[in-house]
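Worked problem 6 (solution included).
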Amino acid sequence: MALFAAARRAAVSAAPLLLRASASSGANRGAALLRPLAAVAARPQPRAMPFSSAPATRPSSDAELLSVIESEIKYAEDCDDHDRVEEIPENFPFKITDEKGTNAVTLKRSYHGEQIEIVAHMPSLVTGDEPDHDRDDKEKGEEGDSDDDAGEKPPQSSVPLTVTITKGDGPVLEFTCTAYPDEVLIDSLSVSQPSGDDEADLIAYEGPDFNDLDENLQRAFHKYLELRGISPLTTNFLHEYMINKDSREYLLWLRKMKDYFKQ
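Solution. The predicted structure is:
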């Protein structure tokens, strides 16, 4: 390559002199022939043959991303939650099924001929850190707003639950709930008889909004779930369990990303 570079510099520097000499003698045709030669000499040449068998190098962006992933893995491994084993409370009525790489756990039990299944999904975490613009908006609010908000509870982390209760081949009762550390809120409630017709099941009436029900009926359904084990004991345990599962699954996901970018 050094030889090619020297020849390229010589050709480029000689071209203007030859052009001036030919112009002074009126030989325009000679100058026209020299311009393509100078352009060829100045054109960058490939560093390797098109069919080179040299191994391809990893792009710098991939190497940088791999470094960041490894740093995040080390940080996650240093946390206390990812390898924590939750102690199941005494008299806990459910059997837990938890598979690695999934975003939910399943709890099952039998109760007086009923089959109860709870699917707990990944938690919605609240760290307590508010964005600056949200905090500024609250500080700029009117004085009357502070009185209205005084009775509101601070935001808490929560776990989405789907509770299914069946009796043999009969109808299916399904609750969708939001579980906080010490309480459960029912978001919706439906009862259905699976017909095998997906289209019919899709358009089946699922009942009114739960909050529109009579308050006595709402309390009765909350009591119904509590008797079947969906109680503060269960939800408090689930809250901690799902937060730790989220940490474990995040670390597993990072390791999969690392394996991919190392290839």
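Discussion: The two ends are 33 Å apart (CA to CA).
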